[in-house]
Protein 1
Amino acid sequence: MTSGGSRCCGATAASGLGCDPITSNLYEAGQTQGVPEEAVLASLGCGNPTALAQLNPGEIVLDLGSGGGIDVLLSAQRVGPTGKAYGLDMTDEMLALAKENKRRAGAENVEFLKGEIENIPLPDNSVDVIISNCVINLSADKDRVLREAFRVLKPGGRFAISDVVTRGEINDEIRKSVLLWVGCVAGALDGGEYRAKLSAAGFREITIEPTRIYQVDDAREFLSEAGVDADAIAPQVDGKFMSAFVRAVKSACCGPACCS
């Protein structure tokens, strides 16, 4: 069970401290014009899915784990008045903040829903695009999340999310050390495993594009203060953790002949 309120890095991310470079400088100043400052400060993601996802006027977008609502509000601007942007979160606190941000932004084509990303409260074949900002990796049942995403997407719909992905074998001790730096890595999948799970859910045209590759030097001071020898773990960390843009498509043909 996952919500935007539990996005990676925790409370320090809002101020840009402690978790750099994961959560810092995700949104350019021009992108957030018209979005309440509270929505920007409440964004605790690892990427900017709205900058990388193709959104067209009139489309219906769903943000899984929408938190304070920044990605929903940005999506609403891009799909325009004939489109709609949904945000899904399970925490009353974040939903209240998101709805207040919606009011301040004057966004009429936005709706925030309460629920879990493992049980999306929308009908089958009802959404054109699914986005998410570093939330799916926090779910204990990623297979179910991906099946639910596939279910609610229309045929031809796109899955376009930011998430933390690992590359190569990482032992548990190293993962725990890096977890002190960024909570996102706790349940992060290897890129190959992510592809396999998306394929098993029914998705096609799967791509994983690194957007930020993390190095120990990015967190040397933080790790030292936590009692972790950064130099000792560097060879097993550098280049193995990254933010990535994960894309996939629900085939426009969904009969047994083309979706099996």
Protein 2
Amino acid sequence: MISLINVFTVDPANQHRLLDLLVRATDEFVSRAPGFVSSTLHRGLDGTKVTMYAQWRSLEDYQAMRSDPAPLPYLQEALTISTFDPGMYEVIETFLPAAQRA
């Protein structure tokens, strides 16, 4: 499994619009792609950041989704109001509260 973390930087006046675009793209297209596991959308409290954490079964599944033209209009519009810094990660360790480990 791989994790993708995208940090978007946006003017606070456009944060809600960016969130809406990402929700629609994920709900209508990305979440239906083979190999999609989950995603979580985070809103920065100062209005300048939006972060999406997504998990995919494999890098190949993620790349196949990226080649699908269907979500492209949402992402292109998002790039007109924001910049983003994507990164691919491998989960090394997950920590739970001590009470849940027993």
